[in-house]
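Entry 12.
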Amino acid sequence: MDIVIASNNPGKIREYRDLLEPLGFRVFSQSEKGIDLEVEETGTTFEENALLKAGAVRERAGCPVISDDSGLEVEALGGEPGIYSARYRGLATEHERRTAILDALRDAPTRKARFVCCICLIDARGESRLFKGVWNGEIAQHEEGTNGFGYDPIFIAEEADGRTTASLPISFKETFSHRAKAVRMLTEHLRNAGLTDRS
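Predicted 3D structure (tokens):
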């Protein structure tokens, strides 16, 4: 069964392929299905933005669609960058956004943080479901590692023994991450609904 990810982010597509292809799905980015669409994320929550993206791509895809909205919430910054993680403070690059957070936390009393991922599935019948995963941890003192993307070089998960996500194998993130948790909920739903090729 074909399934389209409402994204062209290569890191995100790779993670979804690793998680969903063993279930028998053929996973495509939206550009691989010829969908040239940039959905404006006007929602005020991860859930609202995931629904917006999935709905817009589903209209053109003709097959099930998965979208997600995810981001980093830093306790000392009042939950920022949150839904604005991909465009935090209008900064152009991932490195600039990571640096902004490190600078802001220089004298912070806590470095607690969490990643949140909300996945929206719109199935072949056009019905939507939401699945939310949370990954707790803290912000590192400096960037470390080259695996992963986004804020991975500054995030130390509770399970990571003091190392950043980007300094650990990709398999670590695929096991413990916010997205992995949400995907496990998603795949359980797909199996229970009889929608996998290997259910």
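Annotation: The chain has a mean pLDDT of 92. The first helix runs from residue 10 to 20.
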